[in-house]
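Posting this for the archive.
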Amino acid sequence: MSQPTQLPPLTPQFCFNTRVLRDFLRLSRSTIDDSISTNLNALLTPSTARPFTSTSTSTRSPPTLPHQRIPASTSSVFLSTVLFPTWQARSDVIHYCTSVATSPDPSDPDLIEREALNRKDAERIVDERLDPYSGRFFPREGRAETLAGLLRNENAVEGIVRQRTWTVVAERCDGVENDASWEAALDTWRERQQR
């Protein structure tokens, strides 16, 4: 069975290093969510009715079900010890980095250069009759704005990934209602963790 994703040390440097941030989210998703069927299959015990022998592979029996249902006791352990803690770790990272992105960033290394370019642009005289492209100015984003845009995208991806994962879990696990949303299940798990 897969292990839950561990929460990395949360610092502004972690958030502003967008490559490391994206790698953490990507690795966490690939370990649990992208391989959810494999993780759920690992919860099933091998057949004890027909143990392996040298002749057991000589005849093929048709599969009984495309996916065997996972008992509620087994699936609830997986959900509460692996899936939900992993989702919570990613939520914590996204929430923390969002607060970093919306806070003032006085230590931005490009702040002085960007302000100089903005002042220089304000002083430009634009005559679009002579040069129709002279009116174009593409201001560079600060690292906080870049981080905020990345987090908006990652938050949207997170919602899609969780919905897809929850659909597979609801199809395969006993004790999980098909009409229950992943948000409600995660909120219920969080409430139990706070007790």
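Residues 12-40+69-122+139-194 form one domain. The radius of gyration is 25 Å.
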